[in-house]
Amino acid sequence: MIDVSSSKNNESNDNLTDEFKVTPWQVEGKIDYNKLIERFGTQPITQSILDKVKKATGELHPLLKLQYFFSHRDFDWILDKYQEHENFYLYTGRGPSGMVHMGHLMPWMFTKYLQDKFGSNLLFQLTDDEKFLYAQTRSMEEIRLYTYENILDIIATGFDSKKTRIVVDTKHIQYLYPLASEIAKRITFSTAKSVFGFSNSTNVGMIGFPPIQAAPCFLPSVIEGKPTPVLIPAAIDQDPYWRMTRDVAERMGYYKPSQIHSKFLPGLGMSGKMSSSKPETAIFTSDEPEEIEKKVSAAFTGGQATVGLQRLLGGNAIGCPVFWYLRYFFDTERESDERLLKCKSGNLLCGECKSDLAKGSKSFITNFKKRREKAKDVIANFMYDGQSYGK
Ligand code: TRP
């Protein structure tokens, strides 16, 4: 595989300054993922960890191989536990602030791979309260609608209904609240301020929210009646929650939750992650084929201003969101490596990549929509009801 691991990779614009900001509510600037590992005090995913995963699963998921998941905490510990026949739960989630796009699906597809390979139970949290509390203008009604739509996407991802339970914060709070209270009691305002950057003007709902997102880290231990390892696949911006949770875990008699952190999928626009707030730069699971076609043809690329210059100078694939979409979603590793070389040498024009991406995305979304329709009939099977799994 070609080495594309420089810290510059995955960015769609080289003109931004080095400043970047990553919090659970804001991702801005040109992100240096190596610096983020240092800043957050996480570990890089090394070859020896990849070897362990391969030994346990037989095959490496492309998102691991391509370093989309690039950082972790105690992932190696989880793998060791698994080898010792101590099974782990998976926990992931979504803030239902809008419709789901392809960037959201990547960690979910990866979580499904983990569920399939390790036979893990999965808890999937929808933090409708968080999204209500954070936004100035979003009504509960609007969030309820997105919560429903997002549940269809979660189910359409293909999780095992016997091994997957969804918790919607405002609906299933009775299962979370006892744990959240135990957690909250152990966290001071001063810690919350320094971990999350809260200030005097933050509303108290937001200040009180983090223990609600922490609670599912320990719910598996309650369900199983013994300390139970939990692995959280999530984008790196969620890390502050897990830092806080790890701090209190052992004092509460639980294991610290483990994490595996992903990067962000670049948006189709000039810079930044794929964002629901810029709908023209993201491909949503609800998009019609014509919309996908339009968005892809308007996408920013790493190409030169003219065909002549492109042939002469070659393109900047590493800084091209179209390249990264194709690499993560539709190309095999070999196809992607070849695409990179052809682009750099001026033998590939942006039109061709865009046409490959439009074709791939249209057929992917068409299939996904069919699964979404079917999901409507099985929602009840996926909702957490306070019982153990499997029924
Ligand atoms: N706070 C997350 C968001 O805004 C949602 C979430 C809740 C989550 N629990 C999680 C994400 C666990 C990843 C893992 O999207």
Topology:
Elements: E1 20-23, E2 26-29, H1 33-40, E3 43-44, H2 47-57, H3 62-65, E4 69-73, H4 75-83, E5 89-94, H5 102-118, E6 122-126, H6 128-134, H7 140-156, E7 164-168, H8 173-185, H9 189-196, H10 204-208, H11 210-214, H12 219-224, E8 230-235, H13 239-249, E9 258-262, H14 289-297, H15 307-313, H16 321-330, H17 333-344, H18 350-375, H19 379-382
Helix pairs in contact: 2-4, 6-7, 7-18, 9-13, 14-18, 16-18
Bound molecules: tryptophan.
Tryptophan binds near residues 92, 213 and 234.
Description:
The longest helix is centred in the last third of the chain and has 26 residues, at 350-375. Helices cover 48% and strands 11% of the residues. The protein is built from 19 helices and 9 strands. The protein is of the alpha/beta class and 391 residues long. The strands form 2 sheets. The protein has a 7-stranded mixed β-sheet, sandwiched between helices. It has 2 domains: 21-263, HUPs (Rossmann fold), CATH 3.40.50.620; 279-375, Tyrosyl-Transfer RNA Synthetase (Orthogonal Bundle). Bound molecules: tryptophan.
Q: Short summary of the structure?
A:
48% of the residues lie in helices and 11% in strands.
Helical stretch count?
19
Backbone CA Rg: 21 Å
Q: What does the largest sheet look like? A: 7 strands, mixed
Q: What's the CATH architecture of the largest domain?
A: 3-Layer(aba) Sandwich
How many strand segments?
9
Write down the overall mean pLDDT: 92
CATH topology of the largest domain: Rossmann fold
SSE run: EEHEHHEHEHEHHEHHHHHEHEHHHHHH
Strand order of the largest sheet: 3-4-9-8-5-6-7
Structure ligands:
tryptophan
Helix proportion range: 40-55%
Text of the CATH class of the largest domain: Alpha Beta
Distance between the termini: 43 Å
Instruction: Give the helix/strand class.
Output: alpha/beta
Can you identify the CATH superfamily of the largest domain? HUPs
Domain count, please report it: 2
Beta percentage is 5-15%
